[in-house]
Amino acid sequence: MPELPEVETIKRVLEKAIVGKTIKNIEVRQAKIFQGEPRQVIGRKIEGIERRGKMLIIKLSGDKALAVHFKLTGQMVWIEENPKSKIQNPKFVILGHPIPFAGTELPAKTTRVIFEIDGGKLFYNDLRQFGWIKVVKLDQLDQLDQLGPEPFDKEFTTEYLGRIFSRTSKAIKLVLMDQTKIAGVGNIYANEALFEAGILPTRPAKKLGNEEIKKLREAIIKVLEEGIKYGGSSAKDEAYIKPTGEPGSYQQHFRVYQRAGEKCRKCGTIIKRINLGGRGTFWCPKCQK
Asked: Which of 137, 167, 249, 271 has the CA that lies 20 to 30 A from 143?
């Protein structure tokens, strides 16, 4: 599932590509994915793009916005209308490399919604079909999800983390992934941050000391910043790609995630893996306590 760095990367690419342009048409190929009436947004200008946790918010002229949640396998791919893209009707070829679960041509079997926008098309692909696109009023955005503070917000302090950790005996990794506590952190970056902070994923949250909480806060911010720097992570079991169709590269810098059986780059101990809360959990038995 795309997490904060992946959605932030999508936001930044689309900001340059489609802000200021008008939605000319919407083709809904899977009704459950697009929640709302296309006629409510057709003809509206794209005025800005924001990210809230793992959600993408496309703000439109008037009082409307499109909220997008990619869930497990959602993708957005932007193709500009130019001679090199070899547009064909109704398909056009993506040159150079295939897109995970879609191939080299769009629309593909996994394409659920197509936005025709000035100068090109924006494809929403989703293999598992858990993602969604909702037409919402701007003043209703806060009602979509009850999210905790963003890790880059001023509210994300050591004191805040100390309060939420002190109230639960849940494994610290599960608390980090709770979007009502911290917005945007999922499985990948929870694993990475806990390694960076030297904390065992299974530790009860309320057992962490003040110094450990401080290190963990710094580690969360550090790994998220790294994820953004490298354009997100396109790990071996992930569908994530940038709107350009290219993969992210943070997976080349993983500390522990998806590295079970490999040597820790810090101490040489073999990385371990268990399931925690239904998600693969990776840690170094020596570096994390």
From this structure: 167
Is residue 123 domain-shared with residue 172, that is, in the same domain?
no
Please name every residue paired with 274 in a beta bridge, in sequence order, or none if there are none: 281
In this predicted structure, what is the pLDDT of residue 34?
98
97 vs 59: CA distance, rounded Å:
31
Rg of the chain over all Cα atoms, to the nearest angstrom? 20
Q: Does the annotation mark 279 as catalytic?
A: yes
Residues 137 and 9 occupy one common structural domain: yes
- Cα distance between residue 241 and residue 41, in whole Å: 26
User: Where are the extended beta strands (E) located within the chain?
Assistant: 23-28, 34-35, 46-52, 55-60, 64-69, 74-80, 92-93, 105-106, 111-117, 120-126, 132-137, 272-276, 279-283
Catalytic residue among 51, 54, 215, 242: 54
Rounded CA-CA distance 137/147 in Å is: 18
**Residue 147: both structure tokens together:** 């999210």
pTM above 0.85? yes
Q: How far apart are CA 138 and CA 117, in angstroms?
A: 21
**Cβ atoms 27, 123 nearer than 8 A:** no
* In contact, 45 and 21? CB cutoff 8 Å: yes
Same domain for 163 and 99, yes or no, is no
What confidence tens digit (pLDDT) does each residue in 75-110 have? 999 998 865 554 445 455 565 678 899 888 899 999
Q: How many folded domains does the chain comprise?
A: 2
Q: Clarify whether 54 is annotated catalytic.
A: yes
Domain range spanning residue 222? 158-283
Pair of tokens at residue 252: 């080349």
Instruction: Determine how β-strand 46-52 pairs with β-strand 55-60.
Output: antiparallel
Q: Around Cβ 217, how many Cβ atoms within 10 Å?
A: 21
76 SS3 class: strand
In this structure, are strands 64-69 and 55-60 parallel, antiparallel, or unpaired? antiparallel
Q: Look at residue 174 and give its three-state secondary structure.
A: helix
45, 203, 265, 279: the active-site residue: 279
Q: Where among 108, 143, 178 does a domain terminate?
A: 143
